Amino acid sequence: MRIETQNVVIRTLEKKDAKRFYSIARESAVYRYMPDWADGRAHPKDYYGLIDQYQKQSDNTDISIGRSYAIALPDTDEMIGSIGVGLKEKLNEIELGYFMSEKHQRNGYTREAISALAEWCFEVSDVKYLILTINCANVPSNKLAEKCGFKLLERRTPIGEDNQFYMENDSYFYYRSYRK
What is the pLDDT of residues 5-17, one digit of tens each? Predict the structure, then answer.
């Protein structure tokens, strides 16, 4: 899969991305809210299996099947972040997820990627809306969700086993973006 915007490319993850995936997942701003991308992966090669899994799903238009893509710069093809889509099973809803390297945050890249992937999801499916679930403490990501047209519906606090998020305050904001 490949989506080109003005400033980024969303493309299938490749083995060459493993080193960047490894380093970005360990950056403090990413690890703070998404430690599951780094935990249990001690070397860049530990991402090969994950990349292989996502490559198999990359061209599948069934957006309920979880997959992630590289967000890359068009001139160098360097991976600067990741974006994905899939069924959030506990909610039975289709969720977008993303992270961006600290070096490339606040440049509009993530906003472009979210908008482009959401548009693609609406084009290839009949889903009525997409969701974002974002840690309440992650202020920049919450602001970004609203800039991308996602509407904040509520604050949720999972209890017990439902707390699948690595949250500082045990709560997340639940956003939706509806088909236009």
Answer: 999 999 999 999 9
